[in-house]
Amino acid sequence: MAGGWRAKAQAGGMLLALLGWVSSCVTTFVPLWKSLSLDLNELEVWTMGLWQVCIAREEGAVECRAHGSFLALPPELRVSRLLMCLSNGLGLLGCLLAAPGLEGWRACEDRSRLKRRLLLAGAAAFGTAGMATLAPVSWVAYNTVLDFWDDTVPDIVPRWEFGEATFLGWFAGAFLATGGLLLACSARSTRTETPPAPACCQPPAARGPAGGHHPHPKNTDLVI
After folding, report:
1. What is the structure's pLDDT at 213?
2. Separation between Cα atoms, residue 7 and residue 182, nearest integer Å
3. Whole-angstrom Cα distance, residue 75 to residue 22?
4. pTM of the model
5. Fewest C-beta in 10 Å: which of 72, 126, 141, 217?
6. Which residues pair with 37 in a beta bridge?
């Protein structure tokens, strides 16, 4: 029963972590962190990401332009670039570490302690990647809310709003953290289980006589 639960937890955790890692990679590069609709020109929609700004027109044409100097970016975008790249790298590292530690993986099958350590290391990498994704997305979202409700800016000035990548990043971070937690719990359960002692180390009463035959008591009665 415990082995079946552990295998399901590992499969579910790995699936969630992989889904979160792919979503985090998509969030890093799509220019959809913020969106801006102009009241004066409703035919254009501006979107911004970590690497470029795009203008989508009604006829379907999309024009993108990369950001200028890295040092000229706002602090949240500079830090977000670094953290998202770190998250993507940690997610890949977590996949490489956790995969050999899964029960269905044939590699290192006879070394249970090494498999458990690899699984724990992969879970830690996934959890750290989740935090590295949630932090920049939440920071950018927080600044977007502050700028949207800034009373010092005239109402006629357009305001940036949440883009699709913001919500995708939140889901990605949650999936990575949840997947890492499931993998860590399954690794801990393997540690708490005590394997049965080998036959050579069991007491004689538990092993039984060799050959499966029960010895007959010797007749000690004296014949007179």
Report:
1. 47
2. 11
3. 25
4. 0.78
5. 217
6. 45
